[in-house]
Each structure stands twice: as structure tokens, then as C-alpha cells.
Amino acid sequence: LWTVMGWAGMQRYAVTWTGDQSGSWDYIRWHVPTLIGSGLSGQAYATGDVDGIFGGSPETYTRDLQWKSFTPVLMGMSGWSKAERKHPWWFDEPYRSINRSYLKLKMRLMPYMYTYAQQTEQTGAPIVRGLMWDHPQDPHANTEAYKYQFFLGRDFLVAPVYRSQAASKGWRKDIYLPEGRWIDYWDGRVVDAGPQGKLIDQAVTLERTPIMVRGGAIIPMYPSSLYDGQVPKDVLTLDIYPLGHSTFSLYEDDGNTRQYKEGKFSTQALAVDAAAGSVAVSIGAVQGNYDGIEEQRSYVLQLHTRVRPHGVSLNGQPVSEVAGKAAFEQAASGWYYDAADKYGTAHVKTAKVSVRKAYTVALALDAAAPLAATAGYPAAPAQDNAVAADSIIVLNRPAEEPGHRLENAFDEKPGTWFRTIRDQSQKTGAHEFTLALGERRMISGFEISPRNDKHWQSGQVRDFEVYLGDRNGEWGKPVYTGRLKLSEGLQKVEFPAHAGSLFRFRVLSTQEQADDDSVQDPMVTASSGNEKQARPFNALTPPVVNPITISEFRVLEAPAPNKPKQQLYLSDVKAYKASGAPVSKDGGLQMNGLKFRKGLRSGAGSTLDYSLKGNWHLFRADVGVDDSCRKAGSVRFQVFGDGQLMFDSGVVAAPAVVKPELDIRGISELRLRTLAGDAKAGAVCGNWANATVIGFEGDKVGQ
């Protein structure tokens, strides 16, 4: 059963997916906390179509598939809106090969994921986990600071890439490692994190999504295959990261029927003990049975020791060392050490043996030998704050000279230009264009360059206006008005940051035009002898703006503060202004039987004003009618930012609960208003449960 919605109990049978969506970088980003939250709500098998069913690109498809390969459900559906199909094999190289490699890795990891699926069936524990699940004592466990990464089971930490290579300059920043030892899955680098955790940045190529493995992990893997059942599962690989004592209980069944409910399944205890001078791997006898069980298997061990063993034994009997990888693959059993494989990996293979017996593989190590030192993770270099070109969509454009489209200004190629049409037979007034920025951003300026040939003076912008908004056509006043100089090079314009998802640029004049914007015939002016005389005006004739040429144009985004995030409940601070019905704080708030520890209860007509100082960026709450006054009537909830209506819940009647989540960047005054839902409403009371603002350390809410 696949569904986008349902009632309590559907989590027992259903895969829940997020519906028909369009692929984008934001689509990747918001799915990460969505899947974590779904798991915490009992929806262990939640997902979304790889790269949506509309929109997207080869790069967003690959990035979305990469991280979803580390989730229990992976689904794709062909797009309906254009010729490109949403298949992993549809896109050209290098995307096709990268997609294939991640899908094959997912197949190999099936015994690891399936074991956690069995645990979910028994306990309800999520497979895709947030930081709080296995690290409840971590200082960030109950915050949203690192919600764009997750754990697959206990052992894999996955940090999805949700920015393009162009936008990120090849970096995934702010990967948080909780206390413990973590090993880079791709190259073997080791990081030890203390009780306060550790932040790292990782350089990423297109084929690499950051994956870290917990020290002590035992990862069971099946042979490489294209689909389940293509090859026998008679080789079990154990990918081992030795650290002290660790265990894993492998679960298997026929994978097709519900006979496991009748006891037809198997378990196998795996353990590793690592100490100075030795690593011992205990492979327990398989317990249980099911149709199709592999009675004999070869065990292949990959032990990331970072030091060469001087001997390997199986149940006390020495295992022969072979010359290298090629000989190892040909031999029925043996071992070799590859110092170049993730800073040193010992590979051990047994012949096919009965799974009904227990085995111990022991590695003898030199206790005095130092472990191979691994490279560190340098901080990502400082980056410019330009909005990446692949995040921009041209929403509105002026009349363009053939071959000189507006997109040429964003391609980072100075030799390609954007030019407005030079035919001035039809006057249209100011030139303007509107850009969709991919998401809501704090915009603080732009950079502009003229044509880069000997005629660089021609077509240069002089007077301009900048608008920011979220609805095309609803602009209000410009956020900045200015005048550029005549310059052969790049000019940078900065202004106080304003929030918006749409950027509108209006060109009011060019450098060729007179300083007083006069377009009067100079011969008429000369004959009058009075340069200060009143200029003629005709409201039906647009002002003349000469054609413009731009070689480069970049929209600048204000960087977020490099500070820890903070979350503040509004019930913990005092509104600087309160009017109307009285408001009570915390305790006693209840909706549909669910009690809320934090929040505000207010009556019809109440208004609360809060002054915001700093870089607050998000407001959220759960709003609805309190259980104590359900019979009194319905309620409306409104949120204003700097006097402008940002949110209106409409009429809310019990048992409905609405969850506003609003971008409040740039807002200095936040108002919460509660209204009666209808004129007949009695002593209604509405809850602003968990009313919270999220910002950065040092941000204040006060008078």
C-alpha cells in the first residue's frame, strides 16, 4: 500500500510518500527532516520520488538518488511535464554511472537495512534517524541545528548534498559528528569527536555524498547484483571498523512472504573485539530456518585496521597470505593487506563453510606499531556570496537583441553579453527584468559589468531601482535606488539586506543620457538660450532609455551569521505591547488531548507585539482551539511582520490544528493576533502552542 495520507494505523502497512513534487535543490533539502520526522511519527517507510516527477536536472536527480539510496524506500516516477524521463539510466555520463554505483551499493547493503527493518517491525524504532535517537545526551539532540543530516540505523551518518557544485564550489559544510570515532566511508579518514561533538566541512565531487561510519560498526553486505535474486547470497561480506567491543545481530528471512511471522527466519550473532595487538571477529552459528536459506557461505571480512597484521587465523588455524587483490579474488581462502585501501585494510576470506557452525577470525597485530595517520578535514574556503546561476530562473525579461539573451549575464563568461534590442522605433521606457532566486534569500546587493570590448562605454546602466518580493507583480517601493558610474570594470552595489524570492531590476537611464535625464532636442535648447527652462512632458510618451549591454550580473546574498543557532519560546519572554483579551503562558494548553508544555493561550481580540533584534529567521507554532473551550466556537490566528499580514489561518474549529512556519528574516516587529472565528462565538480561547522563533546566538526579543 502506497499513500500520501491516512489515519493512525496506516504506518503498519503503508509506504508514505510526499506526493507529486518538482525536483530542485530545495526539494532535496526539505525531504531530509521530513523523513526524520516521519520516522519519529511511526512512518518508518516514508520517501519522495527521486528528483520529483516534474522539473529537476541531471545533477539534482543524482544528488537526490545518492542520499535516498541510504533510506529504506527508493522510488522514482517518470516526469510528465517534459521529454526527460526520471530514470537513473536516462541521463548521460557521468550521471548514469554514478546512479548505477549507488543503486548497486544499496543492493549490497540490503542485509544491514533489512535487519533494521525487522527491528522496526518489532519495536517501532525508525530506520532513518535524527541525532536524538542514538545520541540523546548530545547537546544538539533536541535542536534543529543539524536537521539536514541523518543516520541510517546506528552506524551510518549521511549528510546529503543539497546545493549544486556551482553554488557550493564543491563543498558540503557543517557536517556534525556526535561524540565518538567516525570514519569516512569513501576514503577512510578518521575523526574523533568529544562530548561537544565536532563540525567538519567536506570537499565533494559529483560522485561523492558525505557518508561517515561509526567506529565499531559491523556492516553485513551481500554480493554485488543488479536486482534481488540475480546472484546467490552465498558470500557474506562483513565491513568492519574495529573499536573496542561491538556486536551486530543479523536477521534474514525469505524476503518474499510473511512466513517470518510463523517463525521462519534466522539470526546470526556477530561480534568484534579490538585491543592492542589483536582483533578478533566472532561469527556465530546461524539460528533458525526459512525457505531458501544459504546453508553454506564464504565469509569475506574487510577490517579497517590501519596497521598490517603479521598473521591471521580461523578457529586457531593459520590462514594463508596471498600476494594481493587479484590472487585473493582467485583463491578459495586467504588474506592480504592493502596499505593504500582507506589507510590500511586487511582482507580475509574463508572457503565455503557451514553456516550452522561458529567461527573466530583472529588478526595478530604489532601492539607497538603506530596506526597509519589519516588526513584531516580542512575548513571550506571563504566563498563569495553570489546567488549561483543555476539557482536563477528568468521570470520576466525585456526585449532582447537576437543572440544576446539575458541568461548571458549570468553564465560567468565575460565574452557573452546581454543586450536589449537596439531598434528604438517603439519606445517602451525603462528596461527591467525579474529573476526567481530558487528560494527566499536575504539579498544585499549586486555586481554588474559592461561590455568588454573597445566600446565599453556604450550601453552602460546609470540610474536603477531594485525591488524584492515574493509575488510577481506585487512589489511595493524599491528597496534601493542608485546611480552607477561610467566604468570599464565591474561595479559592486551593496545595500541593507532585504528578504525575497524574486529580484526585480529596473534601468531608468544609461550613461549616454544627460545628467538631468533630459531627452529634449539639443537644437531647441540651444536656440532658446535657457538650459533651465521647463521641459516638455507628455504622459502618453514613455521616457527614452537607451539600449543597455551587460556582460556580467550577479545577485549578492547576505551570508548567515557564523554563530550557533538558538530557539526561543515566546512564552519565555514578555511582549512589549499586549492588548485585548488576557493571555496566559505555559501549562494547561491542550488540543485533542495532547498537552503542550510551552505556549500562549489567548482570547478573541488579543494582540501581542514582540520586538525582534538580530537575525531571527523562522517563526513557528501549533495553533488551534483549546480543549477547555471547544464548544465556545471557532478562532482565527494572524501573524503580522512590520505591520504587513504574513499569515491568516482562516477559521479554525476543533479538532483542527494549523502549523504556521514563517520566514521572518528582516522583520523587526512580530505581531500575533487572535480573533473570534464567527460573530456568534462565545468565550473562545485559542492556543499558540510551541510559539517559537529560531535565530542565532545573540539575537534578542525585547522592547
Write the layout of secondary structure elements.
Layout: E1 2-3, E2 15-17, E3 22-23, H1 25-40, E4 46-47, E5 54-55, H2 58-68, H3 95-108, H4 110-123, E6 128-129, H5 131-134, E7 150-152, E8 156-158, H6 165-168, E9 171-177, E10 180-184, E11 190-193, E12 198-203, E13 211-214, E14 218-221, E15 235-240, E16 245-252, E17 266-275, E18 278-283, E19 287-288, E20 296-303, E21 311-314, E22 317-318, H7 325-330, E23 334-338, E24 345-349, E25 353-354, E26 359-364, E27 393-396, E28 418-419, E29 431-449, E30 463-469, E31 480-483, E32 491-507, H8 522-528, E33 549-550, E34 552-557, E35 565-569, E36 577-579, E37 583-585, E38 589-591, E39 594-596, E40 599-603, E41 607-613, E42 618-625, E43 635-641, E44 644-648, E45 657-658, E46 661-663, E47 669-676, E48 685-696, E49 700-702
Parallel strand pairs: 1-2, 2-4, 3-5, 15-20
Antiparallel strand pairs: 6-7, 7-8, 8-13, 9-12, 10-11, 10-13, 14-15, 16-17, 17-18, 17-19, 18-26, 20-24, 20-25, 21-22, 21-26, 23-24, 27-29, 28-33, 29-32, 29-34, 30-31, 30-32, 35-48, 36-41, 37-40, 38-39, 40-48, 41-47, 41-49, 42-45, 42-46, 42-48, 43-44, 43-47
Helix pairs in contact: 2-3
